[in-house]
Amino acid sequence: MKFSLRHKSTGKLYPYLEPFTPLMFPAYFKKTYVYDADKVPSDKPVLIAANHPTAFIEPLLLCTSIDSPLYNMARGDIFQKPFFRKLMESINMLPVYRKRDGFSENDRNDEVFDYVIEKMKDNQVVSIYVEGEHHSDKRVSPVKKGIARIAFAAFEKHALNDLQIIPAGINYTNEGLPRSSVYVNFGKPIFVRDYWPTYQVSPSRAILNLCRDIEAKLKESCYQIDAVDDDLVGDQMLEVYRSNTTEKWFPPVVHGSQDRFLEEKQVLNRLNAADTLQKDELKRAASDYFNSLSAAGLKDDALCHPKHGRLGKLFGYALGFIPFLIGRLGTYPVLGLAKYVADKKVSKKEFYGSVRIGVGFISGLLYFPLVIVVSLFSGKAIVIGLALLLPVLGLFAMSYRESFLAWKEARKAKAHPERDVLLEKRASLMQLWDKL
User: Fold this and answer.
1) Could you give the CA distance from residue 4 to residue 200 in angstroms, rounded to a whole number?
2) DSSP character for 43?
């Protein structure tokens, strides 16, 4: 990702930290898919309308996906203490004060909105998390009116004919937990100028229309389970789909392909379109199968793929054990600290991944250069080489461990006495699914 010198960030830390942020995601996510990020212009005013599954991962994903510096609007209570306010502002974070957080002074938001409007004049990119709060369920909440008000105010003040709103859907396979996968999808732009004639006649109607269209476009880029009661079976059928398909582990970041996300989204669309009787029958079959799997201590993927447990793989694991051990031990101070802090300090799951990534990122920026400096004092080429390769060996260690655990799970599933019964239940589930 390049950094555009024409559009410099006004945050003091942002230009120094931004080039390193792409290094975080291969260490945290198993796979990152980015679609149409290159369609976000770097020479036009852009408001990114994003969903908000976690607390702080989304801003990091968005800023590493696009070329221009990104300004993010975040909840205002984080900015209360002077230290955190300066820190947030230094990385291009702007406060939004919400009534439910105990704020009632609209002039605070007016000041921030004016700042964003001037950023639009300067052809900058600002992301707004339009649902108003973070949530991990697979549906888009109604879009708040703030983004429309900013857009129309900027258009009216500066006659920004190119002002556009680009929906950005961020979707996690496992609620943003470590070693899940993530899809970052940028949608087609919505031009504010198309709504301006209506705004001149009826501002409230234009705001309503714009928010409605943003929500519709955002739903195209996000997972969407229409009924809350279908959440569990939706997750179960996605798990079945993922077991039925092959996902290459390399490269860890994929740009330009939306095929896999669209296939997963089609699974949920199919569920949404089913009638009540079909859903009830599917839920009973899925519950029976997954409860039986859990009782057996097995996973769906391992049950379906006995080939993952081939004995021949042991030879490869033996060859890779020493690099795995070096990578595992060498990166443990960073990864172990991040896990420890997140496990001890985080009570809400929406914050878990954000804290773990944040602690890992900051400690990694300190730890890996220190290891390299210490290795230089040894004067030994092999020690210096290992220090330089340590981040790569750490990534290898993660992939090695995941592959080995999958191998063990497949061996266990292949030898399990209930295997045939479980496969019959799975086949019955798939027959019901095929009838939807």
Assistant:
1) 36
2) S
CATH number, domain 14-224: 3.40.1130.10
- The more confident residue out of 292 and 347 is 292
Residue that has been written with the tokens 């033996």 in this structure? 318
pLDDT by residue (tens digit) across 71-113?
Answer: 998 877 778 788 888 888 899 998 887 665 555 555 567 888 9
Contact 4, 42 (CB under 8 A): yes
* Residue-range domain boundaries for the chain: 14-224, 231-298+419-435, 309-415
Please give the full DSSP string across 76-92, using - where no structure is assigned. Answer: GGGGSSHHHHHHHHHTT
> Please, which residues have CB within 8 angstroms of residue 59's CB and are 6 or more apart in sequence?
70, 72, 74, 93, 127
Give mean pLDDT, residues 45-54: 95
In three-state secondary structure terms, 61 is helix
The pair of structure tokens assigned to 189 is 């732009």
Asked whether the beta carbons of 53 and 354 are under 8 A apart, the reply is: no
Percent of the chain past pLDDT 70, that is, above it, reads 96
Query: Model-level pTM greater than 0.85?
Result: yes
Q: CA–CA separation, 17 vs 15, rounded Å?
A: 6
Residue 7 has pLDDT above 70, yes or no: no
| Residue 427 contacts residue 364 (beta carbons within 8 Å) | no
The whole-number pLDDT of residue 5 equals 33
Q: Residue 251, preceding bond cis, omega within 30 degrees? A: yes
The DSSP bridge partners found for residue 49 are: 128, 167
